[in-house]
Hints:
CATH architecture of the largest domain: Beta Barrel
Structural class: alpha+beta
Largest sheet: 5 strands, mixed, barrel
Radius of gyration: 33 Å
Strand order of the largest sheet: 1-2-3-5-4
Distance between the termini: 111 Å
Number of helices: 9
Shape: elongated
Amino acid sequence: MYQILDKIKKEIPKVGSTLTGKVILKEKRRLFVDLENIGTGVILGKEFLEAFDKIKSLKIGDEIVVKIIGVVNEDGFWELSLNKNDREANWQKLKELKESKEILTLQVSGANQGGLLLQYEGIEGFLPVSQLSFDHYPRIEGGDKIKILEELRKLVGQEVKVRILDIDENSEKLIFSEKEAQEEKLLEEISKYKVGDIVEGTISGLADFGAFFRFKDSSLEGLIHVSEITHKHLTNPSDYLKVDQEVKAKIVNINNDRIFLSLKALEPDPWFEAVKNYQKDKVYNGKVVKITPAGALVNFDDEIYGLCHISQFNDDFEQLKQKLEPNQNYKFSVLDIDDRDKKLILGFAGKI
């Protein structure tokens, strides 16, 4: 008798067990499966929706492999999944692909303001904007989120080559990188250059923080930071550069797969000539450009700027704002000349 009970116990499946059964009934939102001597199972709810493409092609009598995901419910049916085995196998495959650094070619299925949506065998992943290649990175002046989304949506339906950057099956997190997929090719291209090289190319994009520079006869791109565009005070790169404009630039830094360039490094610095017209302890008329918690930025001519520090106003920001207004001219004394940061250190000398 105990042997019979042990046999019955062994035949009772557990959650997670994989079984073979036959389709016995298809309904609009449920699929019933004959599991022979252990009863009947049902695929419904989320599991039905996720496996819908497979289910719609099934016929009565078809044999399928299912996984038990729930014990017998109140209706007397085992709760089943048609996709669980496939999904687990696919997650395992994705882990292997990450380890091997395999390059995948996937189609963009959607977009949001943060990046692109991709799928691998029914598992949805995400390609953040920060991991896009230079070719696909949305270069939108002002960082307008609506315009960025419009640019990203243009990529829906296109294929991209990516690597898996991060994966976590428990939280169903799958992050892709297009930059990583291009890493070897990119590093090989970058190895041809060194800091100090003067290169030719075109401005391929503009953003608040600078300009993108595409090397001549190459797909390689670098960044010209806004502070490296010109010796003059510049807040908007589009005031100085245009897309497709041909320029020469100097490589000032190479950091792994990123190249940083400078336009102003190829131009004589007007500061050193212009600053000869200014002397310590002398008073000059200057125009307040901007008020910040650090002090007032003051312009004297195209090349010469100075800072009237908050300490000149007892470190009181409200007092500073009462004394000085943007776009107004005042008298300032030169306390010091900072050749390294190329600015005058100023004291407030009163109204004109």
